[in-house]
UniProtKB/TrEMBL annotation:
Binding annotation for Mg(2+) 4: D45, T59, D90
UniProt name for this protein: Thiamine-monophosphate kinase
HAMAP family given in the database record: TMP_kinase
Organism listed in the record: Serinicoccus hydrothermalis
Recorded name of the encoding gene: thiL
Keyword Protein biosynthesis recorded: no
Bias (Gly residues) ranges: 322-331
Spans annotated as Disordered: 309-331
Length: 331
């Protein structure tokens, strides 16, 4: 089979499925992670994975060009990296870790082969960082302008974790905490919109990464509910609140502390908006019985009985799920 080399000018339509797969397998071999549990990897009709615990976690996420990323802001490698983080954070939020990912690319024939290679590099690097193998995938041609990437991640609960942590287990009296700083991705998105193309928050928005091991860590110490912050603290917090039938009450000083890290670069108002409403953060938001919050987590507030409709409050104020419209801080 011919080598496609670095001739970035060619399109996927020109090299065809065999040419694309040659490229993809080459990149996976270069960067990919192996795994003990992988009995049969890519190349056959299906992958075959050993299951340790007898129960499988499964999740999927799709990103669409123009919808979930803009080519002006994000490279193929950024997209590959981000979609792996999204999926693996979903597994982590249940107390699990990945055992394999499957990737589907649906694209116009005019897509440069180089973009496809970059995408695979991003996927493979992110997977290797997490120690999760790419076990299979699919390719399909789509109409003009269309590029969609879909990843399905398989996983299992960390050892010693008896049950997946759900959104519905938060109880009044629990402590609300997050596995790391919030607002970095949101701050970076704001900077991209303002025309900036570099900087640590821009980088974090393009390639968010979190300590995925904190999911199993939280589950092991008895987290009562957990979710990853994919759509913003307000929206994802409200999901936990509704599923659990409680209010999540954010501590104003804790929120101000997180925003304070971002404010010197993006301004106080945007910093606050990024902390409360910024999506694609993927840090884990969890509730714990008092005294059980793992080291390194940031305490954000507490769980109380719902006042009316379950939701998220900042002090005494009900939080707009979007985190926007925050006259309270922004003036
Ligand atoms: Mg999620």
């Amino acid at each position: 089979m011919e080598s496609t080399g670095d001739g970035g000018a060619r399109t996927v339509g020109e090299v065809g499925e065999r040419g694309i797969l040659t490229e993809v397998f080459g990149v996976l071999a270069e960067h990919g992670a192996g795994a003990d549990g992988l009995l049969v990897g890519p190349g056959d009709d299906t992958a075959h994975l050993r299951v340790r615990s007898g129960a499988v976690l499964a999740t999927t996420d799709t990103m669409v060009r123009g919808q979930d990323w803009l080519d002006e802001w994000s490279t193929g490698e950024d997209v590959g990296h981000k979609i792996v983080t999204q999926n693996l954070a979903d597994l982590a939020s249940m107390g699990g870790r990945g055992t394999g990912v499957l990737i589907t690319l649906l694209c116009e024939p005019e897509l440069p082969l180089a973009w496809c290679r970059d995408l695979t590099t991003g996927l493979a690097r992110a997977c290797a960082r997490a120690g999760v193998p790419v076990v299979g995938g699919d390719l399909s041609a789509a109409g003009p302008g269309v590029v969609a990437v879909s990843v399905t991640a398989l996983g299992e609960l960390g050892e010693g974790i008896p049950a997946a942590v759900l959104r519905s287990g938060a109880r009044p009296g629990d402590v609300l905490a997050v596995s790391g700083p919030l607002g970095r991705s949101g701050a970076g998105l704001g900077q991209l919109r303002a025309g900036r193309r570099a900087g640590r928050w821009v980088d974090h928005h393009r390639r968010p990464w979190v300590d995925l091991e904190q999911g199993p860590v939280a589950a092991r110490v008895g987290a009562t509910a957990m979710i990853d912050v994919s759509d913003g603290l307000g929206r994802d917090g409200a999901r936990v609140a509704r599923a659990s039938g409680v209010d999540l009450v954010l501590d104003e000083a804790a929120v101000a502390g997180l925003a304070g890290r971002l404010a010197p670069e993006v301004g106080e108002q945007d910093a606050l908006r990024a902390v409360l409403g910024g999506g694609e953060e993927h840090e884990l938001l969890a509730t714990f019985p008092p005294g059980r919050v793992p080291a390194g987590w940031v305490v954000l507030g507490r769980v109380e009985a719902a006042q009316e409709e379950p939701g998220v409050r900042l002090g005494e104020q009900e939080l707009d799920p979007s985190g926007g419209g925050w006259d309270h801080f922004g003036g």
